Amino acid sequence: MKKVLVILALSLIGLLSFAVGISYAELQSSQQKSEKQLVTMLEKQHGINKDSFLEVKASFSLQHRQVIKVRLRGEPAITYEFIQPNQTIEYSGSVGTSIEKVGEQDALFREMPLKVGEN
């Protein structure tokens, strides 16, 4: 009886581990897709050269929405934040090390609508 319980417990742990692994792979795929989608959108709508991107990183926030952070070459330590709620990507603001010196793209992102996808 003890062996059967141990085998069942190990089987359950194996199934849960497999499910977590699949969920993590789907999450990684979703983040990579969002990163590529945002880069493509910024290239087309704002004329930003692909070489200008220093870092594009997607992650999930506590509100269960994706936050995509973008750093551009030549910008003074500014990280632009975009959010993806409900199949859209919207500019949400910037985080920088200097309040006086803002990035060149910040005003452009604020003034132009940056939406992709469907509501």
- On the 0-100 scale, what is the average pLDDT? 80
Order of helices and strands: HEEEEH
Number of helices: 2
**Number of strand elements:** 4
Biggest sheet features = 4 strands, antiparallel
Question: Helix fraction?
Answer: 40-55%
The strands making up the biggest β-sheet line up spatially as 1-2-3-4
Structural class computed from helices and strand pairing: alpha+beta
- First-to-last CA distance: 55 Å
Q: How much of the polypeptide forms β-strand, as a percent range?
A: 15-25%
Q: Work out the radius of gyration.
A: 20 Å
Which word captures the global form? elongated
Low-confidence stretches: none
Description:
The protein is of the alpha+beta class and 119 residues long. Helix content is 45%, strand content 24%. The chain has two helices and four strands, in the order H-E-E-E-E-H. It has helices at 2-46, 104-111, and strands at residues 53-60, 66-72, 78-84, 90-96. It has a four-stranded antiparallel β-sheet with strand order 1-2-3-4, covered by helices on one side. It is elongated. The chain starts with a helix and ends in an 8-residue tail after the last helix. 13% of the residues are buried. The mean pLDDT is 80.
